Amino acid sequence: MNISMVGQKCVGCGACCNICPVGAISMKMSADGFLYPHINNKKCINCGMCTSVCPALESGFRVQSSAPQCYAAYSNETNAMHSSSGGIFSVLATHVLENGGYVCGAAFDSQWMVKHIIIQTVSELDKLRVSKYVQSDTNDVYPKIQKLLDDGKTVLFSGTPCQVSGLYGFLRHDYDNLITCDVFCHGAPSPAVWRKYLCEIAGKRKITGINFRDKENAIKNNSACPYNVTFYFDNGDVETMEYTSNSYMNGFLQNLYLRKSCATCRFAKTPRNSDLTLGDFWGYQNIDKKYDMKRGMSAVLLNTPKGENIFKQIIPRLDFVRGVCLNDIVRGNPVLAKPCAHHDNRDDFFSDFKDIKNNFSAVVQRNLINKKVAILNFAPKSDNNYGASLVGYAMEHAITKLGWKPYTVCFIPDNCLYQKTLPGVFWDFAQKFLNLTGICTNKTSLAENLNQKFDRFIIGSDQVVRHPWHDNFVYYLDWVCGNKTLLAYAPSFGIDKLNMNASEHQYAKRCLARFDALSVREHSGAEIFKNDFDMDNVPVVCDPTMLLTADDYLPIINSDGKLPVPDGTEYVAYYMLDASTDVLSHLGKRYRLVNAYRDDDGNFRPIGQWLNIIRNAKYVITDSFHGTVFSMIFERQFVTLTTDFRGNDRIDTLMKLVGRNRLVPASQIIDERTHFARQLDYTKINAKINVARRRGYDFLSHALSITPTYKPQIIINKVRHKRHHSFWWHLRHMRF
What pTM was estimated for this model as a whole? Predict the structure, then answer.
């Protein structure tokens, strides 16, 4: 057993490399720029020493710390202005150095990368001052520290909690002359990312100085931020910017390129594994209203008697010390209670990072965008609707192809919650194939659970804007507020008239005015937008199911798509929602008839089977919009029966893609020689579908890229409307 078992849990402390008695371990940089142990199996003797010191395996020695004594502390103006917070580390290090000790901490090397070094004079202290927001390479400092300790020298070691733990693991016991100081660690950013950023900001210039926590320029420029990030160059240039304007700091503070193990850090808690812990006392101004935080204030945690003792020794050198509660410190430094979660786009960033040749900052900013997209349609709550379920699947896949992260909003009203979440074909499909949010049952739960998580909301497709199917305007997103982008992809009014009273119409108009991009599925819908809402040129786009190809549906078919007929059987598939099966009497004399909707026991067929029945049929007879769509996707010869009950505009829109009319009145007997004498030419049809598909993706791509803008909340719990059957009555009876 050796250190290779650690994998992504590795913290990069280097203890294993330094402890190996045969030199079988070296630290090598991964593709994302972090150091990981590499084992030379020819040298390895499987002694187990590497795993015995590994912090990630909860191995090695730990100091016996307790609940810390906590202080706010400030050294003096000179130290504080040249330090990250209140200058306590400088005073502590100076005390150790002046008493003949040594200090080990993070410093820039000649290439402005960060490594741990050991100093023994106060004149060298500037190298260790001020935070360096890059993971430091501890290299060979552990054995050097051990030698100094064995020689009776006092050593102050400063590092991240995992580096302190790595040192203790390497030493295998505590020393009276060792003082360990860990920092409030936000996480370890990638050294390779830092190097790439340095190349961009330097250009052809040579960097001569870097200050991550430049208080002087922040105060001089009257910055709203407590510190600036400043670079100095050999030609005399000085570039200083608020840290919120610096692309590298933005990525770091939003956890875009932290080490993988940082998100599960077991040291982000108290008690600590060090003698004392130092960091910024963010929020101290809430305790002392008069204090100017621009000069910094240190938070000090004394974790062991040794830590308490050394702090007492330096108190005379401090201008200010005040006892505080741990909770006061944790409130502004949550990393003392739990680790930072990775940015949702971390993996996307590192995928892009491998190919970055220039414009690093643009890649950072692109990946800092919240790529989560909330989709609201009928998919989660449909209990008899194949089209609605597959619309949900198609929307998620199309948005994923564009590089975003879709979530289908699981909106199920209270009065349907029990019935809807029982096991069944459609609910099982939603749980297996859709990326569902938690269940929301009303506008309040939607607003509370989703407004903070998503910047982009999209409705569609299906008849989500049809009255009263919008369920008191839930699908008009009146409950969404804040900086958001609101989109509509291919919603349908279902009929060619709006069918709203005056108050409903005005409320719908108010809601739709907040949308950043609107599209519609049928030409009649575009006319409604124009005539009833004064919105010209709303584009007509294809149904989401047509954004995908036949192959995109294979995962569903492969999951539960077993055909109900023997292989090689020629059959006619029928998917009839309203029309009578009497129209199949002639076809039934020659071919086996297969009901795509229900099996012989009257149960709904699995959605994969529904797709596969259409996919392999010789002919498809349907009165359904989505039955027609999937006949086209799978290149089947089909006939669509028309009924006055459902409205035919959406079918007419599809026929424009087919190029010839395949519509037959629902009362007409289907005859093979009459209705299938001329075969559909899918070479031409697919060319038209591809044009429509590209138009749909172009709309989505542009719409999703729209920057969120402020949307005030307009939610009204109930809008007076005419008496109608309930939404749920319609959903149960109006299948697609």
Answer: 0.71
